[in-house]
Design a protein that fits this description.
This protein is 35% helix and 17% strand.
Amino acid sequence: MAIRLSLKTEPADPICYGELDSPIGPLLLAATPKGICGVHFGRFREQEAELRRWSQQHLPGSPWVPQPEAVAHAAKQLDEYFAGRRTAFDLELDLHGTPFQLKVWNALRRIPYGTTASYKQIGQMIGSEKAARAIGGANNRNPVSIIVPCHRVIGADGSLVGYGGGLNIKQFLLKRENAI
């Protein structure tokens, strides 16, 4: 007697996205049903290959669906941030990364508006004081720019070091927050 096993597979949740025109250029906002999973510099068509690679790694099978209403709450809060009316974000996030990356990203969220922290200080926050290079790598892979404020991380000497959106955008954001 042959046994047939039928596995019912649920379709993957979509990644809904919308675009926001901002003072630093277009931003692509992405969300799953669990929360915001991405804030990227540029438009979908410019970032599509990288976004699909990221989702294949972290959310395999999830289709990208243009649905601006799914990210409208995040767009509104970002607009308020750029207008100087918001200093903290109140959004559900759906972050995907290694346990170390998640630890770093959670530490970044604790850097107050209008302040900066060095990689060493982030290391102290997470109990990994000597992991500056790894912290820099996690900071660089932050998928939710601005909301998870990786722009607030600076060099130990106070210099503005690397930023995925470019140092000019990092400087703009820090000036907006009166952090420099």
